[in-house]
Amino acid sequence: MSAAEEEQRCAAAAGAAVGGEDHEGGGGGGLVSGLLGKAKGFVAEKVAQIPKPEASLERVSFRSVTRQGIELHSHVDINNPYSHRIPICEVTYTFKSDGKVIASGTMPDPGWIAASGSTKLELPVKVPYDFIVSLMKDLGGDWDIDYVLEVGLTIDLPVIGTFTIPLTTEGVIKLPTFRDLF
C-alpha cells in the first residue's frame, strides 16, 4: 500500500471514529483539514499575542560636510521586552525628498538589542553632492530640505523567526549656511 493510500485510509478511519460514518470516497480529508485549519488559526493567534520588540525613529539632523557629500544621521530606539538579547540582522533605509530617492543603503549585522532594555542605534545617511545640486530647487530661500526617511529594522526572534519593523519619519532639515561652517 502506498503512503498516500495509507494516509487516506487513516483519515477515513478517523472520520468514522469521530462521526460514525465511513468516508471511503475520499471525503475523510475534511475532518483532518478542518483540524489543521483550527490548529493553524490557534498558533497564529498565539504568535500574534507574543510581545515583540518595538522601535521608534528620531528626526534626521545634519551631521557634517565631507568631500563626498553631506552626512546626516538619525537614531533608532529599540525596546526589547525579553530577558535575553536579540540579534539585529540588518537595517535598510531610504531617504527621499520631493518624491525622489536621494540616498539608500543597508547596514548589515549592526549588533544586538540589549536584554530587557532599550538600545539606541545610530543611522548615518550620506547624501552625495550631485543629489544636493538636484535639490537646489527645493532649497529656495529658506535653505531647508523636506524629507521622508523610511527604515526597515530586521530582527531575528526565536520561534517566530526574522521579521522587519517598518519605521518612517518626515520633516524638514535646516541646512547650515556658509556663516555656520566658518
UniProtKB/TrEMBL annotation:
Transmembrane segments: none annotated. SMART domains: WHy. One of its GO terms (biological process) is response to desiccation. GO terms for cellular component: cytosol. Residues 55-172 form the Water stress and hypersensitive response domain. It holds the Pfam family LEA_2. Belongs to the LEA type 2 family. This is Water stress and hypersensitive response domain-containing protein. It comes from Digitaria exilis.
